[in-house]
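Appendix C reproduces, verbatim, an entry submitted by the partner laboratory led by Prof. M.T., so that reviewers can inspect both the input and the predicted structure.
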Amino acid sequence: MLSQCIEANVRPYYESPAWLAGLVITALLTLTSTILSIWLISQHFTHYSNAVLQRPITRILLMVPIYSICSLISYISIRNAVYINVIRDAYEGFVVYNFFSLFLEYLGPNQQVRLLKLSQKVPHTMPPPACCFMYDPRNVHFIGYCKLGVFQFVVVRLCTTVASLIMELFGVFCHGSMSMSHGNFYTTVANGLSMGLAMFTLIAYYLPTKSFWLGLFVSILVNSGFIYETKYWTIPEFSIFFQSFIVAIEMVIASIWHLKAFSIQKFVDGPFAPFSVAFWDSFIWLDLIHDFKTTIHYFATYRHIDQSDTRGEFNESSPLVDRN
């Protein structure tokens, strides 16, 4: 049974010189990262010549302004931080899906080519701490297992986000608390397990997980007594300030790195789709729904697939614009 959060007296954090300095820096960082990311997204929309690559790229790029703006608003209005971060947390699962989609496109243009390339690989050990387990990329179901690992995180992240919002409305979520009598503990555990599984299935670490592990690290410091309250702020308030400030710094670094990692240069050769079509193609999520249904159907029938058949059974998502 969850218990109500202990209401702390509102501290005049806005009178603290440190908070005011942090606000100015956070705002400047947010402005910088947002301008850089929006500019790069607009360049991809203007030169939208390869939908299957640029669709996930533009969605990943949008992560930076969403994270930055949500962090700035949370820094200013800590009482509404849980509600604001619902947007960020819900988008996080979508970003993971698009990272994986981008990996698949770089691996090969269709399922047959991907399976053929993977058939030439050798078994590997999982990354620590699961290094005692092996995985075989040559298995015809390997990509399917990876997709399932990604989709479970999308679903779990969405469910825990909604649950956090509901518990906050009833006053039992208690942001930053690791007490088993508060909802934050259970959503943190669920997200951690789901994220760990997603990381292992991707065999890689991805940028948005930083905010989760940062939040968990701060919660541990708070509950261990290393972070304490002052006359300007309570412990939960400081936790939100610190996380928001660090995320703002990370997003500036990410926006600069994106300029090189997702450069527009490889897409400048036309023909280009109209800007409006590119915008619609990137931000309508029909491919996510189609891919999810295809994955579920795949595992409902995968026993009938011959392991020696490198063709696979996945259907490609149907984009709104041509692949090339």
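The chain has one domain: 15-304. Additional entries are available on request from the coordinating office.
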